[in-house]
Design a protein that fits this description.
The protein is an alpha/beta fold. It is 30% helix and 27% strand. It has an 8-stranded mixed β-sheet. Strands 9-3-2-13-20-19 form a 6-stranded mixed β-sheet, sandwiched between helices. A 4-stranded mixed β-sheet has the order 1-12-11-10. Strand 2, helix 1 and strand 3 (32-36) form a beta-alpha-beta unit. The chain is globular. The chain starts with a strand and ends with a helix. The model has no long low-confidence stretch (mean pLDDT 94).
Length: 383
Amino acid sequence: MRQRLTCDVVVVGAGVVGAACALYAARAGLDVTVLDRGCVAGGTTGAGEGNLLVSDKEPGPELELALLSARLWADLADEGLGEAVEYEAKGGLVVATPEAWTGLAAFAAAQRQAGVAAVEVPAGHLRDVEPHLAHGLAGGVRYPQDAQVMPALAAAHLLRVSGARLLTGREVTEVLRGPDGAVRGVRTDRGEVHAPAVVNAAGTWGGELAARAGVSLPVLPRRGFVLVTEPLPPRIRHKVYAAGYVADVASDAAELQTSPVVEGTAAGPVLIGASRERVGFDRSLSLPALRALAAGATRLFPFLAGVRALRAYAGFRPYLPDHLPAIGPDPRAPGLFHACGHEGAGIGLATGTGHLIAQALTGRAPDIRLRPFRPDRFREEAA
């Protein structure tokens, strides 16, 4: 049966970013409806590792957002959500070969100036921090502010505690706009939802939703694989990755790139990433990518060579050309707000994004500058 609903704000996307937008908007006193054409966490969120990182971000707007988000995740954990979302304040460890050590040390020094806790670990003490690490590394940097959640649980529980109305299995076919161009809701394949504000939290499909509002946002998918091992006793204490991961994240290359990222989970399996490539929405299994992930992981932790990988999964990270998400109001369509394009950092940046969107929806001054995240900053490229 087709329905017509009315609320204060419609959030399109029931991943972790949409869930965080719903939570903070509801806490600001707004009546929120969340729509998704699939299920909760059925897109990029469900294929994520759950990283809440400051370690991989250079000083600038994204790091400001990451530090804000880290504080908000910790606040939610203190409120009682920590166990439900498997929040672990485990910290991160970035390690370097002799060739990469100078660059990593300089990167960490700049981060410290921006408020990041970054503790250098000499080569001789690396195995005190991670006993099973390979020999021959030049040193590392430990990041106590890094943490982890279970992504699907995070999205589900943020939505639950928000109290927002959740409508899944409904595709938004049009963002409704009035004669003055202002947003007045959305049309779905099962009816309309009327609201003076619509939040685009559609992740990798954010460009598609923007087009249905009559504006452009050049979101592209960047495919990544994760290997999952058999359950193991706890052997890896931190999220551990090689210094080259930071450069891969910032790269514009379309071809396959991999850099070892390894972490344990509360349930026992070890998660192994990270790969990146631009192949559209092709979900085909890539043996070269999986072999590269396995090889990189065993270089960091040789014991993994004797461990079975039980499965692999792929996800599509929502990539924008300047590697910054689109957050905030769209001046081309009054009432349209964007919260997408976070690439592989969406889970970590979700809380800060939701908080900033709630501030924008209610006319409050944002905690950090929104200008670097303006959704219309790509209009010249789009033209």
